[in-house]
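In keeping with the milestone schedule agreed at the kick-off meeting, the structural modelling team has produced records for the first pair of proteins. Each record is given below as a sequence line and a structure-token line. The laboratory manager (R.T.) confirmed that both were archived under the project's standard naming scheme.
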Amino acid sequence: MYIAAVRIAYDFGCAAIGIQYQQGLKDLAPASDLVEGLLNNAERPPVYDPNTGEELFAEQAIPHFNEVDECAGVDALVTNRVWTGMGLDPATTLHDVRWGEHYSGEGIDDFVWMFLISGAVPPAHFIGGYAGASSERQPPMYFPFGGGTLKGVSKPGAVVWSRVFVMDGALHCDMGRATAVKLPAEETERRWQMATPQWPIMHAVLHGVSRDQFMARHKANHIQVVYAPSDEVADKALAAKAAMMDELGIQVHLCGDVKL
């Protein structure tokens, strides 16, 4: 499936692709989550053109959106172009916003969200990268034919979050800053067991956006996240992304504590 996805993207000149497993593919094939995570990672197994032998999209991430979320595809593509242009790692994750609560300890005293998706996370986002990744069989209640996840714990660091959505017949984008934090192993396991332990996890603190504000505003359970090497660089990258979105005619809404 991974090789086929890369070749289809190349053959059709796709800037981003989506694997619509919820639209029937899950009843025909194993889950695509391991494939999706690899696609979103710049460092990934090579795929070659069967006719020319050329490596396709060498050393590039192929922006991928899952669950037929085309708005997330737009978001991932803009992020890819901006982060690549700034010389940053363009790996993105489309996470589910699953749950959260206040956590105190380990230098943290804040509301910490649990972001969790069924496997489509690039290894670049994990503590330890590929070495910190594992693959577990997908739960049969979701994926009757199984298939592997790409499981890991997201590394602590500076994050830009966003969500593209349609409102009043126009494209909009909410975006803001966050910090991915590292929780103790037992707390991570507790949170995993409250949801789906086979799936990758991110512990995130949103900057200047409370739980109630987020739940009242956010248009879906999906949220796009991308790392930057520092808070300063994340602020600059967010500003560049907001400017690109605006130039494309997408109405941008800056949420919480944002420095421009």
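The second protein of the pair:
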Amino acid sequence: MTSAQELVHADTSRRGCLTANIYVQLPTENGGVRIGNHTGAFLDSPGSYLFGEGEIPDDTPSVLLVPAAGELVVWNPTCPHVVYPFSGGSRVSMQTWLKVVPSAQRETLCVELLN
């Protein structure tokens, strides 16, 4: 990315998945991602859902993640999230979807990579 448009969205087509991002390069100023803990009818949307202004209450719990190069960040992509505007370089990450799949052994966690 060379810029961010601050569009709050949720990847509602990825229910049952996690998104995993490894940050390769980060700009010198900002570029973090805010992830909110908000639910609602938007979760029934078949694709990515773009939130309108004021659609998410101001007091919605959220976290601002500002990763360093080389860090892995994993979160639920159906949670509203936004990349903050940044300057001073590019923001490069590798991203994949992780889906937890049933295992015959309860002690084993199986993950399927989706792209």
